[in-house]
Specification:
The chain is α+β, with helices and mostly antiparallel strands and about 400 residues long. The protein has eight helices and 20 strands.
Length: about 400
């Protein structure tokens, strides 16, 4: 074998770079934490709590399709004022009750006229011989609903484990001139009403204060106020039913902005206004509703003094609302929507490289994992109560202005 290398030629060694995408391992998602359908671990955990499924006005005499935790349901309000949430397919032959007619005490299927009340009891079968003793033995699958704070709430878990519908101190203690306003525009989600990615991607965003400095205050311009652009000193604390984030920002005038936010069980956004219009207790609560594994929406209730005040909380990028931006502007001025949805329908948790700034994420995941274990062991998760006289749930969240020497 001859060596054809020319004399005095420079030999460049060949190195093997194994860091290319070719060698990337198959991406993996934590489905235990993200899947919300019936029978899944997280789905069963979430079904131990009440969830808002619409505004009170959404329940009326026109049947309405709703999708919650991977289940398709029909919401209506009979003419006596009772709201009902039923499985969509009629117990007779499966026709959708979306095409039904709402009557005084129930909804009538369009196919053969069977009538079901708000608790699923069959009250009439007009095509059957009368009297009809078998009628009362038919039950349309249903879920309990209650109305509070301008929202309709549903409990979709085991009947014997149904907790009381919680009340919240920050929505119970109103100052002079304040009233409650409910909103279904997914305020805080940074995009449209329905956001096409897994709910956990937003829920974890609640304990990530550093993205406010980068995404909301520098990368896409100042979306809130200048104080939020200051890099905070952050600590996280796990509470009985939440993970609390404490952010301290030293202001130019020598004072300190002490901002406390919480991610509460099961899906609560306890986030004080980033526009800091006033100091003190958090002004509103939001509930992240998992529609299914790949989409969610947010319902918000807040203390306001003017109708429509909550809508003003929506983020603006380049001076525009999300839906007003062109595709080029979405790329130039990304917000929460772009940051979350671009991770994919369910982010690949196996590809993450968590850092010190992600301590809140780790704590929140551990809190959720603890609740999953409780359900597995037959116990009740944190944040539920079976006492009808239980006190309103309290959070410590809010914006507080304090002298620097007193901040902690």
């Amino acid at each position: 074998m001859t060596d054809n290398t020319p004399p005095n030629a420079r030999v460049i060694p060949i190195t093997l770079d194994t860091g290319t995408a070719y060698n990337k391992r198959k991406p993996e998602s934590n489905l235990t934490m993200t899947q919300v359908g019936p029978g899944t671990p997280m789905g069963e955990l979430l079904r131990r709590y009440w969830h808002p499924i619409g505004l009170c006005a959404d329940a009326n005499t026109t049947p309405r399709k709703v999708r919650v935790l991977g289940e398709d349901l029909i919401l209506f309000r009979d003419k006596s004022g009772q709201a009902g949430l039923l499985y969509p397919h009629c117990a007779h032959r499966g026709t959708s009750l979306f095409y039904g007619k709402v009557e005084e005490h129930g909804i009538r299927c369009c196919y053969h006229g069977w009538v079901f009340d708000a608790q699923g009891h069959c009250t009439e079968r007009p095509c059957e011989p009368q009297p009809d003793p078998q009628c009362s033995k038919v039950r349309q699958p249903w879920y309990p609903v209650q109305e509070l704070y301008g929202l309709i709430w549903a409990y979709m878990g085991p009947p014997e484990k149904k907790p009381v519908l919680p009340r919240y101190e920050c929505l119970e203690v109103l100052e002079d001139g304040e009233f409650l306003e409910a909103n279904d525009n997914s305020i805080g989600g940074g995009g449209p009403q329905i956001i096409p990615c897994n709910w956990l991607q937003h829920y974890e965003n609640l304990v990530d204060p550093f993205h406010v400095v980068i995404l909301h205050s520098s990368f896409s311009g100042t979306q809130f106020v200048e104080q939020m652009a200051l890099m905070p000193k952050v600590t996280w604390e796990t509470q009985a039913h939440s993970v609390r984030t404490i952010s301290l920002r030293n202001l130019p005038d020598g004072q300190t902005l002490r901002r406390i936010s919480e991610a509460g069980l099961p899906t609560l956004r306890v986030i004080p206004s980033p526009r800091i219009g006033r100091y003190g207790m958090v002004e509103s609560l939001g509930w992240v509703l998992p529609i299914d594994d790949h989409s969610f929406r947010i319902y918000v209730v807040g203390r306001v003094k003017e109708q429509g005040e909550l809508v003003k909380m929506r983020s603006r990028l380049n001076g525009k609302l999300w839906e007003e931006l062109t595709e080029e502007e979405h790329q130039q001025f990304p917000g929460d929507y772009e940051a979350m949805v671009s991770q994919g329908a369910i982010t690949y948790h196996g590809d993450e490289h968590l850092a010190q700034s992600d301590i809140g994420i780790v704590k929140l995941r551990r809190l959720l994992q603890e609740q999953l274990q409780k359900i597995k062991e037959g116990l009740d998760p944190a944040g539920v109560s079976f006492d009808v006289n239980s006190e309103p749930v309290k959070f410590t969240a809010g914006n507080f202005l304090v002298p620097s020497e007193k901040a902690s």
